[in-house]
Design brief:
Layout: H1 2-18, H2 21-57, H3 64-79, H4 87-113, H5 121-156, H6 160-167, H7 177-184
Helix pairs in contact: 2-3, 2-5, 3-4, 4-7
Length: 206
């Protein structure tokens, strides 16, 4: 009896393996891991923003509308309860992160108006961290997109689509091309070049 049970277990294992069950498991875990990295990098960016705002505010306190906009966009982005398997939730997350990117871009326009900010060491440090984080966001997001594409292809392909249907694995939503283009553009944060001095007034004649 035990020998028969062992043979049945081996047969089931071989059947599941041949039908792509193990592949689905591996790719499903890969999408979860990739998504966690996306969320981690967006959180890293959110954590940098308060210090960045305070640093810029020290030189341009009158730009309150911009500071409020960044703060509100950050709050909205960090409050979204995103579920990567829920298309509506994912779209809300993408939109909130896109709004935050836009708000950061407006903050950097303020920096351009006040050249003295660019020489502040604290700002330069935060600038470097923000640039690095934006790059990591792009890498993490692209890895997630690829992981979801691989998973979706697997569960749509015969015969693994039958295994996916039996065990309840469904197609996962991904970043759409339109939204991806909108959120993939990082804010302009390269202010390493010093501002050009204003031209001297022409001497009076006559």
């Amino acid at each position: 009896m035990r020998a028969l049970q062992a043979l049945l277990l081996v047969a089931v294992a071989m059947l599941l393996s041949g039908c792509g069950y193990n592949t689905i498991q591996v790719q499903d875990e890969a999408t979860k891991s990739a998504w966690s990295e996306v969320v981690n990098q967006y959180q890293r960016r959110a954590d940098l923003i308060p210090n960045l705002v305070e640093t810029v505010k020290g030189f341009a306190a009158q730009e309150q509308a911009v500071f409020i906009g960044v703060t509100e966009a950050r709050a909205k982005a960090t409050q979204v309860q995103v579920k990567a398997d829920d298309p509506a939730s994912l779209q809300q997350f993408q939109a909130a992160q896109g709004e935050l990117s836009s708000a950061l871009s407006r903050l950097m326009v303020v920096v351009e108006k006040y050249p003295e900010i660019k020489s502040d060491q604290n700002f330069r440090d935060l600038q470097a961290q923000l640039e690095g984080t934006e790059n990591r966001i792009t890498v993490a997001r692209n890895r997630y997109i690829q992981a979801v594409q691989d998973y979706n292809v697997t569960i749509r392909r015969f015969p693994t689509n039958l295994t996916a249907m039996i065990f309840g694995y469904k197609v996962k939503p991904n970043f759409t091309v339109e939204n991806e283009a909108a959120i993939a553009k990082p804010p302009t944060v390269d202010f390493s070049a010093p501002a050009a001095p204003a031209p001297a007034p022409a001497p009076a004649t006559g």
